[in-house]
Amino acid sequence: MFLKNCLKVMTMDFDVVIVGAGAAGIAAAIELQKTNLSFVVLEARNYIGGRAFTDRETFISTPVDLGASWIHSFGSRNPLYDYYQRLGKDDQFDYDDEGGDALIIDYNGRPLLPHARQRAKLVLSRLYDRLDEFAGNNCNSDDQSIEQVIQTVYEQLIESDEQVKRIVDLSRSGMEQYEGSNLNNLSAKCWETGGAPGGDRWVSCGYGTLLQRICKEHNIPIRLNTLVTHIDTSDTTRIAITTSDSSSALLCHRIIITIPLGCLKRNTIIFEPPLPEWKREAIDLMGYGLMNKLVVQFPDCFWGSSTRTIIHACTVRRGRFRFTICLPPPSNILIFFVTGTFAKELETLTDNEILLEIMTFLQNIFPKRTVPNPIRYKFSRWSQDPLAYGSYSNFAVHSNPQTIADLAKETADGRVHWAGEHANSNDGSENWCYACVHTAFTSGQRAAKAIQNQLNNS
């Protein structure tokens, strides 16, 4: 242990404390296990995984992720690839392996007409060209939102054909779904910056379950139900950490903070002295989106057992119930992905009111079928979760990769380290991305290695 070689004026509890047992905290712990440093992970929740949470109780034999579902950029370079190969496969239905059909429909359940789809494709190509032009023009010193940049071209190209408009809006809402925010909040300068390249892999056992299995394999020391409320770095010889359930402080040499960006924005941890202005500015500037899942189980598969997804164009508002995953018998589950403003509005409703919205939608798109009453359901409300306050980060207007670099940069003379899906700074590789579980994992590895280098060289 590092401290055995140091003169101590007081007893240190650990060399390193990791705050948060999500992907970043888990990865940091695994790295520290390769050293002789003592450490512990403090987790405020009563489970491991954070926003990667698998519900294994509501739907009996079917695990359902209420947070992250896919390993993005799936392949041998992904730090979670080998773990998934060993620990992530269950002997049950695998969404990615079974094939199936995508039901792409208009607001009334009817097919989208080929000529309208072709016309919409041309319009979208022009919109993407406009975004590429703006993002690639280094003379544009001031950022704008994606909505601002494409709005004029959009209005010029959209004609009287309402179905063409709905198809174009369906694609625009796909951007919003990916980022978890509306286009008027997203940076046009950072259009297509840091997106996850490559294919995706559905985690059949549940992403939260996979992270729990990784923890079990490594026997990581984690204290659950331990909420960190105060971090004091005013003494240069140690860091004092206060938790909600303790009257005395936990002492350490280094700390890795992996709590969600939403919690940093809400100041759920008090820092003494306060965080430097540049760190605070990065926290405030980075975007933070919302994606919720409305999971509903039915007594039968009335939508058709071969259907894997429902993609829906809407007349009411762009992106309303645009994307649904369909799990076939015996699960008979629909998972509605809702994002941005629509997701926030739904969070204000009761469960029964949300169910009514869903049933009205299903009856509208399946007018000739009997839609039975659901037998089970579960709705996430991530923006109301006091340990998340949202889902994942994005490039808001005026933010950029330097914002992420600032979020990842150490504070308190290098003693406080930062990690998480929002803090995976650009390493210059073609595979760099952010806002994913595996990028949170990578950021945790980076922070732990930095601490090891610091303490070994001191």
From TrEMBL:
A Pfam family that the UniProt record links to this protein: Amino_oxidase
GO molecular function, one term: oxidoreductase activity
InterPro entries reported in the protein's UniProt record: Amino_oxidase, FAD/NAD-bd_sf, Flavin_monoamine_oxidase
Highest taxon listed in the record's lineage: Eukaryota
Amine oxidase domain segment(s): 24-451
Name by which UniProt lists this protein: Amine oxidase domain-containing protein
